[in-house]
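note to self — DONT lose this again. spent like an hour looking for the file last time. sequence + predicted structure for the chain T wanted, 391 res
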Amino acid sequence: MFLKTSPLKTALLILILLIIALLVFHKRFIEWYVSPADEFALEQAPAAPDYDQYRFWSAHPDRADSSDLAPEGSSAIDPQQAQIDVFFVQPTSHFTGGTWNSEMSTSAFAEQGTEHIIATMASVFSACCRIYAPRYRQAHLAAFIRTGSQAGIEALDLAYRDVEQAFLHFLDNRDPARPFILASHSQGTLHGLRLLSNHVDGKALQNKMTAAYLIGYWIPSDALTVTIPNIPLCETDDMIGCLITYDTYDIEGTGRDPDGVLPYWYPSGWEWANRPTTLCVNPLSWRADTNTAPASENLGAVPMRWTDAIFEFIVDSNPGYIYRSLGEPKVGYTSATCRADGSLMVDPQAGSEFDNRGAGSDRSLHPNDWNLFYMNLRRNAAQRINAYKGN
C-alpha cells in the first residue's frame, strides 16, 4: 500500500535529496561540471586570437592596464620611455567552463585570475620595461592532472600555437635592436621554454635576450642539454642571457612529489614523465646552490587579493575585482632554500596571505611563486638590464 503525497511535498522531497547529494558529493559534482570531455575536438576550439587587436593582450604598453601598477615606495616607468621589452606568458586561469581551451572572454571566471596575474606578477617589470602579455587559448587545468591524456597534449599544442603567434607579432612590431626579457609562470613557463628552444636558443635573437624568468614549472635538468643547450642557468645576480627558474613550497610540507608526473615538451616531442630533479635558482641569492638565503635578504613580498567566489566559479562568470594599488611590500618576509631535488623551500605560510588553500601534503605555494619574491625580482630585472647595457 502506497501513501499518497501532494506534488508540492514530492517536489520538496526531491529538492531536499538534491541538496543532500550536493553536500555529500559537491566536490565531485563541481569537478564533473567544470572539466572538459575525454576527447579533444579541434573543430570545437574557440576562434584564434588576432594580435593586431588590443583586446587580445592582457597587458600592452600602448594602453593602460594593471601591469602599470607599482607597490608603495616604488614607481612605474612611462612605457614609452622604457628601453627594454618584456614578453610575459601568463599561467593557467582556465579552470571552469568545460572546454579544453579558453575562449579568452573577459566575462569568464578566468579573467579574474588574469587580473591577479597581470597586477601582481607582470607588474614586477613596471619600473623598467614595456610589458606585453598576450591572451591565448590556454589549456584547461585538466591538461596537467589527467596523466597521460592525449587530449590534454592537443590542448597544450593549441595554446602554444597562440603564444608563438603572439611572440612573432611582438618581434615583428618592435625595433629589432631592442633587448627583451622573456617571463612566465606555470603553463606559461611550459610554453616559454618551448619558445626559447624554437626561436631563441642558438639563434641571432639570443643576443638580444637579457634574461628568461621561467618560473613555476618543474623544468628538468636535462632541459639545459636537450631543449636549450645554449642558454645557461643564472649563477649570479647580474649574469645575462641566462635562465631563472624555481617552484615554491612551504618548509612544513614534504616538497615536490618525487613520483609526480607532468607533461614535458622536448624538441623530439611530448612526454608524460617523472623528473624528480629539477632546476632551481634561489630568488634571494640568485645562486643555483643549496645554501639558505635569510629572510633579511627578502626585499618585499606582494600578495594577491584572493576572495571566495564559488558561485562565479561554477557559472563561469568574472567576479570583476580590479586592482587599484598593490599596497606596501612585506619586507624581510621569508627565507628561501633550493633543496637538492630543486624544490624551493620557504618559511611556514599556513593561514597567511600567501597560503595555498588548495595545497596537499606537499604544501605547494605555486600561486605565489612570483609574489613571495616580488621586490627581489623587480630589483634583479634592473640589475640584469644594467649588466646588459654595460656588456
